[in-house]
Specification:
Layout (H helix, E strand, L loop, with lengths): L1 H22 L3 H5 L27 E6 L14 E8 L6 E9 L7 E5 L4 E5 L4 E5 L7 E8 L5 E11 L9 E10 L3 H8 L4 E3 L6 E5 L6 E6 L4 E5 L4 E3 L6 E8 L5 E8 L1
Antiparallel strand pairs: 1-2, 2-7, 3-6, 3-8, 4-7, 5-6, 8-9, 10-11, 11-14, 12-13, 12-15, 15-16
Length: about 270
Amino acid sequence: MKKNVKLLFSVLSIVLCFTLMSNSGGRASVANQGTTGAPGEGTCGNNGCHDDGNFSPEVIISITDDSGAEITEYMPNTTYNFTITNNATGASGYGFQMTALDDNNAHSSSWSVTSSNGGVVALSNRTYVEQMGTSAENTLTGTWSTDVADGNVTFYAASNAVNGNSSPGGDGTAITSLTIPAITSSNKNVLSSFSFELSPNPVVDFIYLDVESTPNQIEVYDAFGRLIQSFYNQKQIDVSMLTPGNYYLRVGNDKNQFATKKFLKL
């Protein structure tokens, strides 16, 4: 009897795995399941799916501010950008899932997804960002924020590299984690003591800065976090040569304090 039960369980596991593969959606949306490798969770690579190790996948988590710089501390109630990247060779598609937990392994984050094939799925005690169908792109992007006042936030991510044969066989899975502490009180005071306003927004030719003193450093970044222009000691910024799209203006003062705002170039 025990052998029959064990055989039945194995068959059901295989059927579930193939069913999920045929759907190609994320585990949270398809099976109400987190598989990021976070505490209490497995991964697709150790529960019988996508575990052949092919394509040598490597998954990387990047959390950045509006200037495109990777953060080493987070400010509560602040929105940051995330990117999950699967560095695999030869895969025909990718799958992603990520969650973020505090020091008590509790969920306290807010997510949005900017990738066209991604979504946010809330389960009973955790919320996930994941692909909603097999992704042709090896990245998943969006925004993250938390209301945690202090302590660490740890991101857990798993990503599959698949061969597109409608079977979990011949695929590969990678997992990773990234821990970011809350910003210290001294740094929090520095960051909150400097700000500026810009106008007009959207802009065609010139941006005018409303700031207490003339900023000594001004940088324009594109939507991918690449530095496009630099200016010094002025309040009028010529952006007429930029192509239309979204950009970020990072302004610094003589106390080495910085603030960033987004603008739209028409």
